[in-house]
Write a structure and sequence with these properties.
Blueprint (H helix, E strand, L loop, with lengths): L1 H34 L2 H12 L4 H8 L3 H24 L2
Helix pairs in contact: 1-4, 2-4, 3-4
Length: 90
């Protein structure tokens, strides 16, 4: 009987974790689409998806390295702020 209860609890926990993951993914997509500028999205993709350095991104876009750094920092901060708001009110 305890095994059944434990496995049921584990299944509910796993389902809850999956729902939270799906919610977080939905929120990230929404924030990505609505809260970031095109430039921020481009730099984030280059930096995280394409594993480009800030110097490579700067050269590709014809800007300075500090500009790339500031843009990435602001994009991450904006995503963090928006996601914290959504998660507190979810």
């Amino acid at each position: 009987m305890r095994r059944l209860a434990r496995s049921t609890d584990e299944a509910l926990f796993a389902e809850c974790k999956q729902e939270k993951r799906q919610l977080l993914l939905r929120l990230v997509r929404q924030a990505w689409d609505t809260e970031l500028t095109d430039c921020q999205r481009s730099y984030l993709l280059c930096y995280y998806q394409d594993a480009m350095t800030m110097r490579q991104i700067a050269e590709s876009f014809g800007v300075t390295v500090p500009t790339v750094s500031r843009t990435l920092k602001r994009a991450r901060a904006r995503l963090r702020k928006v996601l914290q708001y959504y998660l507190r009110n979810a």
